[in-house]
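Raw record, unedited: Lysophospholipid acyltransferase family protein
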Amino acid sequence: MSSANTGEDLAYSGYNFSYASPEDGWLKRLVITTIEHRTGKPELQRIYNELHANNPDPYKIWQEILDKLNITLDFAEEQLKKIPTDGPVIFVANHPYGVVDGAIFLHLVSRIRKDYFLLINEVLSREPILKGHLLPVDFRGDEAALQCNLNTKAETTRRLNNGEALIIFPSGAVATRPRWSWNGKAEEWPWRRFICTRIHETKCTVVPLYFHGENSNWFHWVSKFSMNLRLGLLLHEVRNKRGKTIRIEIGDPIAYREMEQYTDRQALIEYLKKRTFDLAK
């Protein structure tokens, strides 16, 4: 679905956020939370609490987050205007950063569509500010999780048939350099085929976006050895984007008639991935 089973969704608990989930073992929680606290979480927690205290508008919160992080966006405004203002749309993108590209993605889409919704980890889907805009994906593997995910699949199809807009990172995990490459380019995790059936069921339009850039050398280095260290550094990767300019390419909408021929799900997801990465050229 929206996320590979890597745990790379923030766990929400009251006004506290972390990549450590209550369901994790104590050692994993300790490693992740220790790294988070030493690499920028307190500052980000303060920003989050300030936003929460002001009861932000769910359509404006993403701009507020970017403003507080002093992140500037570089994209073609005319491409944003090409996005359909109604009717079923699926927005897809590569996933180089984690939280930051997610916030940018949601900001751009919410400027055009108020009926957006995002597939996200079940714990984070409880965030009250965004109620109605988040659908849960549960990775616990038990019967309750299976039922939750079946419900989300059905609800995704229903909402698309109702003319709403789905936002999704098909890879579900942050891009990483190959294990034995120290200076190579970060690579996407395999794109999952969840949206392919939804596309054919709802005959929707797809809009691809491409985010330039990648995370720090430190993030890629620890990713080679430890998933816990990797998760612990994801908040650091938010903090180190402060004051930066992020370049985004927004592709032309892809009408269903351009995808109809791809009856094989793998062929369709590869086509959409190619259309996305062609934007980088």
